[in-house]
Amino acid sequence: MQYISTRNDKINLTAAQTIIKGIADDGGLFVPKNIPQINDAFLCGLQPLSYQERACKILSLYLTDYSPEEIKNCVSNAYGKQFDHNAIAPIVKISDSQYLLELWHGPTSAFKDMALQLLPRLLITARKKSSEKKDIVILVATSGDTGKAALEGFRDIPHTKIIVFYPGSGVSAIQRRQMITQKGSNVDVIAIDGNFDDAQSGVKNIFNDKNFNTTLNNNGYELSSANSINWGRLLPQIVYYFSAYCDMVNNKAIVCGDKINCTVPTGNFGDILAGYYAKRMGLPINKLICASNSNNVLTEFFQTGIYDKNRPFIKTISPSMDILISSNLERLLYHVTKNAAKITNWMNELNLSGHYQIDKFLLTKLQQSFAADWIDETATASAIKNLYTTCHYVADPHTAVAWQTAQNYREKTADTTPMLILSTASPYKFNDSVLSALNVKITSNNDFQLLDVLKKYNTAPIPIGLTSLKTAPILHKNICKTEKMSAEIKNYLKI
User: Fold this and answer.
1) Is 471 exposed, middle or buried (0-12, 13-18, 19+ CB in 10 A)?
2) Closest C-alpha among 409, 376, 167 to residue 292
3) pLDDT digits over 23-60, tens only?
4) DSSP state of 393
5) Is 252 one of the catalytic residues?
6) Whole-structure pTM over 0.90, yes or no?
7) Which of 21, 33, 81, 112 is catalytic?
């Protein structure tokens, strides 16, 4: 298996080289040169297996330069006792032919754990396999959940350092507390005076700054990323689509070979793109439904073919989706065009003018696999309330956006294909928003008291990782302008 850049298909790297590098030198994202194909026997063979065993089977199709023993070791260390559910990513039936895929049973109570518990193991294994002796510096821009999950995944991993940038006023109180209390001898957390797009653009600019990278290399460091721009971060997410499908078969919701729809709350487009890879591999997915909040740049794109980030940035109660530059869309566009020059032109247009437009033929091709819709803040709160009233299920705002979008899609299309809705975060990470939506009178601004209040409505226990935050000391207080991000990195690395 070889990997190429979305902006230069003459580049050929192994999986290990790709995971270490994170982003291509030309600013493009790495993609597999060919997407592996599965057959019915392979899919049926996954059904009796554990999540860990399924993961090994799927990953081995892409990590062809890793030995079976290396993959098994990475997987067993990633998906163990740090998850509070034996199924790792269980499905929950909420109504006839509708299931939620709970992806938040890891140590940070968000779906990012599904990838970021595995990525550090893949990265360190890749480093051992290569001749690279430099320490790896992981740069992360986060809209909320990625930061904590990456910090937890890379904490005290040998030969790595991790630096997380987050929007100072663009994450929930619990998300912020998770990051600024992070322990670890190799971690640093810095607030950005800006939004997520500012942080993400800053990180990309640092990767593309040749002089800065030369300085790092001369001091024994090499940059890599834990954002979903890193293939090693995206790859593990493919697994849970296969696993959920197998669980739906085992629960007799479908027969093996039946098609399903998947609705995904979407920000940076990595989670839903993993579903597209699963579909392209041969998993029987009919439609991938892209669910957005008021920052509905992706909805407009899939409906009109116009990507335009020139719009107000709206802070919502689903902050992990408050994104106007969805980086992983570049990967999708490459796979459907196979034209690196065209991708380069579109990304240059986005960088210079803030928008680009694809042709009608390509839009029609995308609409064969994707549908898209969005709901506003009022509808999100109503969805939390309605899901609790009708199904007695307490959902976080991101999951609520996906659930309501799924209902809207069914009403508009009359498509009754069994629906898998991805639940991406524990409701306990968004106590005030969830309680307000449930019409519970909030008498305290203390997030830890609100945990106990929400527990009265939620059958799921409070995650241990959240209760422990109450007494955790604040260890990271730095705030910087985006233009000072590289200086903060140098300062932390003492170079």
Assistant:
1) exposed
2) 376
3) 998 999 999 999 999 999 999 999 999 999 999 999 99
4) -
5) no
6) yes
7) 112
